[in-house]
Amino acid sequence: MKIHVITVLPELLESPFGHSILKRAQQKGLVDVQVHNLRDYSNDKHKSVDDYAFGGGAGMVMMMEPIVNCLERLQEKEPFEEVIYMTPDGETFNQSMANSLSLKGNIAVLCGHYKGVDERIRQHFVTREISIGDYVLSGGELAAAVVCDAIIRLIPGVLNDETSALTDSFQDNLLAPPVYTRPAEFRGMKVPDILLSGNTPAVEKWRFEQALMRTRTRRPDLFARSGFDTE
Ligand code: ADE
Q1: Per-residue confidence (pLDDT) for residue 3, from 0 to 100
Q2: Is 191 exposed, middle or buried (0-12, 13-18, 19+ CB in 10 A)?
Q3: How far is it, in rounded angstroms, from Cα 228 to Cα 231?
Q4: Ligand 1 binding pocket includes 136 (Cβ within 6 Å)
Q5: Coil, strand or helix at 229
Q6: Which of helix, strand or coil describes residue 225?
Q7: Ligand 1 center to residue 170 CA distance, Å?
């Protein structure tokens, strides 16, 4: 899979893509993440990427030309299956969106800044608008990193134990059950006996029940959609 991230602040993305699972996924050739500096696609001598809003008002707007130049240049090699725009007024990101995006071959992620992009970009070039939640960040970069992380860890081979993504919270509309590690007792706080029993079917049953309980109490909205809400 290829992910092209288009941004005015490429430095902000160095760390998220340069460590741990995302770094290893790139080293293994399972994903190719390319971060593009929008200023490199500006035709003007000051390398501007923004301008005043027509009609007045505070805040700058990202101009069409550098974005279109960038998208067109990158698509000379291979067309994008999705051009995603990160914006607080997009569709709220969730695990099922991560699942479907992880199956794509070549996508672009455009990070918004200032007051956002010229609306014509959204109308004519963007295929999908994504928000990571109902709050406003200083720019789309951190949101893009969140979305890319959620997608990349689902690509087969990225996680060492492939089943571990399948047992993540949200994969079946249930939150994950609690986990414990050694020691079995710490300052009088004990691990549930069942987990020490060696009885795998009983452990699985316990985990499933815990997941149901956790989802019902913490996320009744998710529980209602899970299909396990039989009452
Ligand atoms: N840009 C600013 N805030 C954002 C959000 N919540 N989600 C996606 N992109 C954003």
Answers
A1: 98
A2: middle
A3: 9
A4: yes
A5: coil
A6: helix
A7: 21
Task: Answer yes or no: is the C-beta of 210 below 6 A from any ligand 1 atom.
Answer: no
133 C-beta closer than 6 A to ligand 1: yes
Structural fold of domain 169-226: Trp Operon Repressor; Chain A (1.10.1270)
CA of 28 to the centre of ligand 1 (A): 30
Confidence at 67, pLDDT banded by 50, 70, 90:
very high
Phi, psi (rounded to 5 degrees) for 163: -70, -15
Tell me the whole-structure pTM to 2 decimals.
0.94
Residues 140-178: tens digit of each pLDDT: 999 999 999 999 999 999 998 766 787 788 878 999 999
Q: What is the pLDDT of residue 231?
A: 67
The domain at 2-152 falls in which architecture? 3-Layer(aba) Sandwich (3.40)
Ligand 1 atom, smallest distance to 138 CA? 2
Going by CA atoms, what residue is nearest to atom 4 of ligand 1?
88
Separation of 103 CA from ligand 1 center, angstroms?
Answer: 23
